[in-house]
Design brief:
The chain has helices at residues 2-40, 43-48, 67-83; strands at 55-56, 65-66. The two termini are 33 Å apart. By secondary structure, it is mostly helical. The chain has three helices and two strands, in the order H-H-E-E-H.
């Protein structure tokens, strides 16, 4: 019984550590670059984080946008905001993952 309990605790610890490493990798590879690209208003870096098959359907607009259409809109938005001296920042907080 003690041996089974020890194995169970060891397995749970290993699983938790693996999940933590996976979440750290997602933060490093997705969320931190997303926030940086957004803050720099770097449309290319921002769009590099999106898949090639992205489809955007804005609520209440009645349109479906392809990735290229979305990218053009993001580039225009970042360009005009930069020209107007606007600065952006964004942050994420996950209550459950």
């Amino acid at each position: 019984m003690k041996r089974a309990l020890f194995f169970l605790l060891l397995s749970s610890s290993a699983l938790a550590q693996t999940q933590r490493h996976q979440l750290e990798a997602i933060n490093r590879d997705v969320w931190l670059p997303f926030m940086a690209a957004y803050a720099k208003q770097d449309a290319q870096a921002f769009m590099d984080l999106h898949t090639s098959d992205l489809v955007r359907v804005p609520a209440d607009e009645g349109v479906i946008r392809t990735r290229d259409q979305y990218a053009a809109g993001v580039a225009q938005w970042f360009t005009s905001a930069t020209a107007e001296g606007q600065r952006f920042s964004i942050a994420f907080r996950f209550s459950e993952r």
